[in-house]
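Researcher: Can you fold this with nicotinamide-adenine-dinucleotide in place?
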Amino acid sequence: MSDKVRVGLIGCGGISGAHLPHLSSSEDVELVGFCDVVVERAQAKVEKHGGQAFDNAEEMLDTVKPDATYILIPTYAHGAPERSCIQRKIPFLVEKPLGIDPDDLRKLVKEVEASGVIAMSGFMNRYRKSINRVKDLLADDPAILMDGAWIGGPPLVKEGDYFSTQPIGQWWPVKGKSGGQMVEQVIHTVDLTRYLGGEVVEVFAYAARNFNQKLPNLIPNYDLDDAMVLSMKFAHGGVANLMSCCSAQANGGVFLNVWASAHTARFTDWAHHVKIFTAGQEGSEDIKGDIDDIFPTEDRVFINAVKTGDRSAIRATHADGARSTLLALAANESLLTGQPVTVQY
Ligand SMILES: NC(=O)c1ccc[n+]([C@@H]2O[C@H](COP(=O)([O-])OP(=O)(O)OC[C@H]3O[C@@H](n4cnc5c(N)ncnc54)[C@H](O)[C@@H]3O)[C@@H](O)[C@H]2O)c1
């Protein structure tokens, strides 16, 4: 490998804008290829960052032969791009969630592991100081109860609405394409419950439906659950309850509460600011969540791993991220069966 890590992107939509600032300003990274099935999106990135544009991932990998790739595609599109990378032994960072078909995802995990390539999943919250401080405390004082939520509004056809102006609006509101809000978005919190609380063995879910359908300007093709509650049982005996909601237009937010015997941690907002309370002590330990530096931190871990071959700083491998994805997909299975589901990893 030359001094620079030569990087190619597969998928040039919204999330590429979170990774590109660090990649394009890093002296040890060269952006050599951009691929998107809508090639104009790849061309727009080339105009800004250089490299070559493609509408086909295999063609990009074979033409520019990158040292590493970012796979930044919708939930339904996973599988083929990862396989194209591992066949060519190209390390990749793949954004969450890692797939929509549990059987294919379990198969893919085995293929990735057999290939030996560096494969990282984009659960950037695992690099937050606030999260890791609480993880350290829970090592000797395990979580007994957690509850968390992402509460937001519905995707509307409305000036300025993110979903009606961005490509994500074409697939996010369709459950068969995104997996639904619990899989596509609240998966960050699903992943944190595993990161902080260990493996989840069983889940049960209820959903609310047909409230958003009454809205006159609901985005076409919307068929999501308007809200979901997901109960989880951990291998170590603790329990958690997570909620998703995309029907609250007045107010919402992101939170996660963790209760252990001697510690309570209250995380708030996307940045996961935390207040930590300790039994017998006045006040709280407060840690501000990382905001602008969280994607650069994650990107640096990936680029360094590619440069050195040392994977020890990676906190969410592809295999680990797949487990969080399979857990979130098990919630959909519970909705379909009306039964508790033993999570198959
Ligand atoms: N880590 C985070 O906080 C975070 C935030 C936003 C999005 N994401 C994740 O990133 C992924 C992409 O989200 P987005 O907001 O960029 O969506 P997007 O719709 O804006 O962009 C996805 C792009 O992928 C392209 N694409 C689809 N299939 C492709 C293929 N086979 N090959 C090449 N390009 C393909 C689409 O044309 C589109 O331009 C999603 O899984 C999402 O959950 C993560």
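Model: Folded with nicotinamide-adenine-dinucleotide in place. The chain has twelve helices and 15 strands.
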